[in-house]
Amino acid sequence: MELLFEFLTTLKNTVVDVLPILSIILGFQLLVIRKPIPHVKQVGFGFIYVLIGLALFLLGLEKALFPLGKMMAEQLTAPEFIHAGEKILTAIHWSDYTWVYIFAAAIGFSTTIAEPSLIAVAIKAEEVSGGAINANSLRISVAIGVAIGIALGSYRIVVGHPIHYYIIAGYVVVVIQTFFCPKLIVPLAYDSGGVTTSTVTVPLVAALGLGLASTIPGRSPLIDGFGLIAFASLFPIIAVMAYAQLTEAKALRAEKKSEKRIQDKENKRNLNKNR
Amino acid sequence: MNNQFFVFFKALLGSCKDLLPIILVIAFFQFAVLQQPMPNVGDILVGLALVVLGLTFFIYGLEMGLFPIGESMAQAFAKKGSISWLLTFAFCLGFGTTVAEPSLIAVAKEAAIVAASGGIISDTIESQLSYANGLRFTVAFAVGFAIVVGVLRILRGWPIQYLILGGYIVVVLMTMIAPSWIIGIAYDSGGVTTSTITVPLVTALGVGLASAIKGRNPMIDGFGLIAFASLTPMIFVMVYGMVIS
Known about the structure:
The structure holds two protein chains of two kinds.
Chain A: H1 2-33, H2 40-77, H3 79-82, H4 98-113, H5 116-128, H6 135-159, H7 163-180, H8 186-195, H9 201-215, H10 221-225, H11 228-256, H12 259-274
Helix pairs in contact in A: 1-2, 2-9, 4-6, 4-9, 5-6, 6-9, 6-11, 7-11, 8-11
Chain B: H1 2-33, H2 41-80, H3 83-99, H4 102-117, H5 125-156, H6 160-177, H7 180-192, H8 198-212, H9 218-222, H10 225-244
Helix pairs in contact in B: 1-2, 2-8, 3-5, 4-5, 4-7, 5-8, 5-10, 6-10, 7-10
């Protein structure tokens, strides 16, 4: 009963959040385009499904994942966990925080896989490219990018480097890759930076960043706590372009040899490795 | 009926697969690293079931409602041929969806609290509120502007890389002159603007426009709107920081 009440509250909030979008769409459809919406019944039901789905999703996150994830971020960054046994804090060494980096990478990867807006873009990309871009491979590349980004971002907070060195270096890599990777992927790669960080990732990552910045002496949450999300939106761009470059290289190689041969060779190699 | 049930079941299974990594990560860190028992297992199981169900419904509705409406509107605007209406729509969509975005409101509030404790703004509720609101409207305006530029790009067929790279150069130059306390917030504000409902709509709009206009490739010209929406807020927020100080 209580759950139903909570669901209705979340649903109400979701509807309120969506209201501006809905009124813009309806306003333009009725006043400017002045044509009935095609398949209006289907679209209406689609919207209702989206709202119900989003409300259920948010309620579930709020109930199960966020409290646990935030608590873990706090516990992992707490001085008692990092410096267990040591009474006097003398200096902070970046390698004390290994578990934090691993957690950052793991939580970045796993939340990105479940990010609904990334799923949406991946579905669209597969559809538009006629299957040349596989939705799941795209999502995995983006998730790897987020994982690297957040782990590196946590490292930056621990050592206290200024954020813009990293971001600017990342931009330089993006620029160089843009010139060498297949042209078709470039816009999609740029987009994938923005879609990674929404419903699931932001709250957990923000908790991790603020936890780190407020427990490490000498870091200010104002300057260091923010900035993880920026890492999470930069590195997927690099990862997606790298994925396209790898796929292209693979396709070139496959042209030269028949695919079966490569398969055989790889099998042999694996066998040798196992020995 | 049976067939429909099968499709739904398959979608449900897909959602479970999407969620599996999170469950594994949390379980591993809880048991192996932090070595603590899982608190309120019942609550967590119910929550996970809700997340799976929610994701399934969302993806269902996406293909039924959000994608078709975005594309049909793009096609209607392309047929109508009025660029000014299309750009007005683009701005409203960007501004309207961002200004009410819950994660932006949360980040702006957080940023105001941190700024007040850092002595950037005076420590009263009013000044915090006006700082947070200023941040929100700056970001929303930036996103509206971004979608307008992005739609213009699709119409004209400008190559995306020059615009984005030019934007990066502006970000780098601004970083050098903007006050250091705004930089982290500015960089982050690019990421928080694109919500779960905006992204599918804006993507469908871009792809729909690119398919409706002759000579545009939906793959090359259709994507990229979100990239603009995550770039311009950084620039605009740094300007905001410079104006405030």
